[in-house]
């Protein structure tokens, strides 16, 4: 027995060269001896079980020479004769595929993804309409997501074929149904939190057509008449206008605080912090006060968290997700082999656009590190030359000029270089987040950080504002690069918000290329140790009270009101790899959190979420823009962070730990949760570049974008975002279509207003597949978008099919509707871009059908092994597992 295990685990190792994520998992986090009971997946272990499963399976099921009676699918003449062992497991699936293929007159075994060279939208639609006859290429429910509550009774029948081929083996089907049911459950739980907090697409009043952006974005450079223009003309239409001052002084020239409308107080709304640490907003309805939104309680949150965590640690679920992800990657490889040429031809035919002039948003970048080091160095030197006598800091009981500060450091302007600045992090910070934090100090001196990189200092953030304007100016010059800067609110005092808003408004830090995110460092333990706060509730109060005040009565903090219009969301930051010991079985409420211990990540995130939910309800009611949660998650540390984020966050940054948690990764895929990835940052801190899961996420179709994190510490060039793309392109050999797709993802993930996105990506940019794609804007060919959409639809319909099957167990009738009638309805729905009646809770539209063919069931035979594995483990496996 142990010999066999040895062989099996060797075999597992052999597979490692095609599974970089497996290799990666070996050396950056300590692995538990067995992956059972954890969300981690062990390939070798899975293989070992699979082999055992096959043995039990073979014993229980003697070879069958003909398809089961329940199978009603025609066999194509091209079907090869299967060996008994093959047929035992994969007979039904094989015949299904072949049947599809014969119907589509392609040859067996080649799952052709080819498209016609002369592809036109009209042609696509007719092809789509015909291809929906095929039950396996068709989205399951009318919503495409297959959410039961979205379905009306007329459409509730699932495809006939599904019922017939899942009756092969009851035990396995039940297992598979249980898995799909729990996947669906997890998605539903997330949707509950997202819709409650108004984080779904188009939940935000800012995305409504009547939203006014002030200052307005620059006018489109193309006229409606589409007159042919020369390159020269195109270049001349830029951000510049005759009245705009030259250079960085021109940033925010069109912003005038006096011109901003400050709405009036809303008297009938009241807010108060309840004893559980959540602000509740109430309104007078029929004489008594009631809350305008029911915020999920912390108990409910932790129960849901527990449920998803448990499912992601369940062996069969892990294997199922792992195989589906592997399948997605394989089908991508197939797609790219057969369609790469077509894609390139499509983009070559597309006039004007290329990678450099499609819009790309830096979705994750910290403001205090947003300039590159050469820029900062030049700025410091120029300040030393131009204003050495300016009083800049109050230190050790006296005021110091810039000259005196540098004298105290024993430095002159001439001495300064990038090397003395020493802010670059790529050699000595790996797994040392503490060292990385010190890199924010120029020359290792915190006083220089305070003078040059803080908004709230003796000079009221003047230097940082000047630097910021220069950065904004560079972005505006580049025209196609945008950024969402993350800036800190610490929660140390109630007036932090006002000071920050004053800084932004007074220095006119408004640019059409920039939006803001607010990051809250998880620093309770530091404030507690220094006596700034007594309990966690004070931090919540400092962070949220001004926001509720300004949302109820904007005139109470007029500058904050204006600034908030440019804020898109919240972030939670700090070193995720810090150990989190669970002191309590049940966490105390914030007012009772008085220990020196820092609350865990999930606790921080809940209180951000819960208070943001109330705040959003209040703001949405008033027609103000709402906010989303976009925390750092899965950069290091516990995988529970990712579960919390999946539950309640709009999108996340990093997410590299998802590579070890296939079930969660699959959930992120299914729900298209945005992930802003920064492989260069990871390379310096937590994960070597070659082990980064970026490319495998990309191939699988996760919703990822590229971002710089900290250009000051990680980038070498002036255009950090282009540097990030360029390194990725060279390492992974990304094509220009890949890069444009990433750029498009970044726009979709970003918090820019829908009107702006529409200008960048074209009308109906959030419609599925090629309906929402304008190659002339995004330079992403429709063939690519259709493929992604189709692959996604198939996964959803798979989950839907089996989870529905589990519900139908008691009522076996399949439904009276024929497949073709359902198909017709579907194609009717999806052919109209304006049709929005089938939005799922977070607002996606019905998926469109497509003429790609990829067999969805390839993962099943392996998956089915898992069904037996429980029986096998409980009855026969008495020896220790191979690890
Ligand atoms: Zn970051």
UniProtKB/TrEMBL annotation:
Pathway: Purine metabolism; IMP biosynthesis via salvage pathway; IMP from AMP: step 1/1
Region described as Disordered: spans on this chain: 1-43, 59-160, 196-248, 807-883
Top-level taxon: Eukaryota
UniProt keywords, alphabetically: Hydrolase, Metal-binding, Zinc
PANTHER family: AMP DEAMINASE
Family named by the database record: Belongs to the metallo-dependent hydrolases superfamily. Adenosine and AMP deaminases family.
Biased composition (Polar residues): 79-93, 871-883
Bias type Basic and acidic residues, positions: 226-235
Cofactors demanded by this protein: Zn(2+)
Entry protein name: AMP deaminase
E.C. code: 3.5.4.6
Cross-referenced InterPro entries: A/AMP_deam_AS (IPR006650), AMPD (IPR006329), Metal_Hydrolase (IPR032466)
One Pfam family recorded for the sequence: AMP_deaminase
Low complexity: bias regions: 60-78, 809-832
């Amino acid at each position: 027995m142990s010999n066999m295990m040895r062989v099996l685990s060797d075999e597992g190792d052999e597979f490692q060269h095609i599974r970089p994520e497996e290799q990666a998992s070996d050396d950056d986090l300590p692995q538990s001896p067995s992956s059972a009971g954890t969300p981690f997946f062990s390939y070798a272990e899975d293989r070992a079980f699979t082999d055992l499963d096959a043995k039990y399976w073979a014993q229980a099921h003697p070879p069958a020479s003909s398809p089961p009676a329940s199978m009603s699918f025609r066999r194509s003449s091209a079907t090869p004769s299967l060996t008994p062992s093959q047929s035992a497991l994969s007979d039904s699936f094989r015949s299904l595929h072949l049947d599809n293929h014969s119907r589509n007159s392609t040859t067996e075994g080649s799952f052709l993804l080819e498209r016609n060279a002369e592809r036109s939208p009209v042609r696509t639609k007719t092809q789509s309409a015909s291809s929906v006859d095929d039950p396996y290429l068709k989205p399951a429910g009318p919503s495409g997501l297959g959410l039961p509550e979205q379905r009306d009774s007329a459409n509730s029948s699932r495809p006939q074929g599904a019922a017939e081929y899942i009756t092969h083996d009851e035990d396995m089907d039940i297992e598979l149904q249980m898995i799909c049911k729990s996947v669906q459950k997890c998605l539903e739980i997330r949707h509950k939190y997202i819709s409650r907090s108004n984080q779904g697409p188009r939940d935000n009043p800012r995305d409504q057509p009547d939203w006014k952006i002030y200052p307005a974005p620059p006018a489109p450079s193309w006229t409606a008449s589409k007159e042919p223009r020369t390159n020269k003309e195109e270049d001349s239409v830029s951000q510049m206008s005759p009245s705009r001052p030259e250079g960085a002084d021109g940033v925010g020239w069109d912003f005038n605080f006096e011109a901003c409308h400050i709405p009036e107080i809303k008297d009938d709304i009241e807010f108060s912090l309840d004893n559980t640490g959540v602000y509740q907003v109430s309104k007078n309805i029929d004489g008594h006060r009631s809350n305008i939104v029911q915020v999920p309680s912390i108990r409910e949150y932790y129960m849901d968290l527990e449920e998803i965590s448990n499912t992601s640690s369940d062996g069969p679920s892990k294997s199922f997700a792992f195989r589906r992800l592997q399948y997605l990657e394989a089908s991508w490889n197939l797609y790219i082999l057969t369609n790469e040429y077509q894609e390139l031809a499509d983009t070559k035919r597309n006039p004007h656009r290329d990678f450099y002039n499609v819009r790309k948003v830096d979705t994750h970048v910290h403001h205090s590190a947003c300039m590159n080091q050469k820029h900062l160095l030049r700025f410091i030197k120029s300040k030393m030359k131009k204003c050495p006598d300016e009083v800049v800091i109050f230190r050790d009981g006296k005021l110091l000029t810039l000259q005196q500060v540098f004298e105290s450091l024993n430095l002159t302007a001439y001495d300064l270089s990038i090397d003395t600045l020493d802010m670059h992090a790529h050699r000595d910070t790996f797994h040392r987040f503490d060292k990385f934090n010190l890199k924010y100090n120029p020359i290792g001196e915190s006083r220089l950080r305070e003078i040059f990189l803080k908004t709230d200092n003796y000079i009221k953030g003047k230097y940082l504002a000047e630097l910021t304007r220069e950065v904004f100016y560079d972005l505006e010059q580049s025209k196609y690069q945008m950024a969402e800067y993350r800036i800190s609110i610490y929660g140390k005092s109630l007036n932090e918000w006002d000071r920050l808003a004053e800084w932004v408004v007074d220095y006119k830090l408004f640019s059409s290329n920039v939006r803001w995110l607010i990051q809250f460092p998880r620093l309770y333990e530091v404030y507690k140790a220094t006596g700034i706060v007594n309990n966690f509730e004070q931090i919540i109060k400092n962070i949220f009270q001004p926001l509720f005040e300004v949302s109820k009565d904007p005139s109470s903090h007029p500058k904050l009101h204006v600034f908030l219009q440019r804020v898109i969301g919240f972030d939670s930051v700090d070193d995720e790899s810090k150990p989190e010991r669970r002191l309590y079985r049940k966490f105390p409420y914030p007012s009772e959190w008085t220990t020196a211990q820092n609350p865990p990540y999930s606790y921080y995130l809940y209180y951000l979420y819960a208070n943001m939910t109330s705040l959003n309800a209040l703001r949405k009611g008033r027609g103000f823009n709402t906010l989303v949660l976009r925390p750092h998650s899965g950069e290091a540390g516990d995988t529970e962070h990712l579960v919390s984020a999946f539950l309640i966050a709009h999108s996340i940054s990093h997410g590299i730990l998802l590579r070890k948690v296939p079930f969660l990764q699959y959930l992120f895929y299914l729900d298209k949760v945005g992930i802003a990835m920064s492989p260069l940052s990871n390379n310096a801190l937590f994960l070597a570049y070659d082990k980064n899961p970026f490319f495998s996420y990309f191939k699988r179709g996760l919703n990822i974008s590229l971002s710089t994190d900290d250009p000051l510490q990680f980038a070498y060039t002036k255009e950090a975002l282009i540097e990030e793309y360029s390194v990725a392109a060279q390492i992974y050999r990304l094509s220009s279509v890949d890069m444009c797709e990433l750029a498009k993802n970044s726009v979709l993930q970003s918090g820019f207003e829908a009107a702006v996105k529409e200008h960048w990506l074209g009308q109906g940019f959030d419609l599925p597949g090629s309906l929402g794609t304008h190659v002339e804007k995004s330079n992403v060919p429709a063939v690519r978008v259709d493929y992604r959409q189709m692959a996604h639809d198939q996964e959803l319909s798979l989950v839907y099919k089996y989870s529905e099957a589990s519900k139908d167990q008691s009522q076996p009738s399949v439904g009276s509707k024929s497949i073709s009638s359902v198909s017709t309805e579907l194609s009717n729905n999806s052919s109209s871009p304006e049709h929005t009646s089938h939005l799922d809770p977070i607002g996606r539209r019905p998926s469109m059908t497509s003429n790609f063919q990829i067999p969805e069931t390839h993962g099943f035979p392996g998956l089915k092994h898992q069904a037996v594995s429980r029986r096998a483990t409980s009855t026969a496996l008495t020896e220790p597992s191979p690890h």
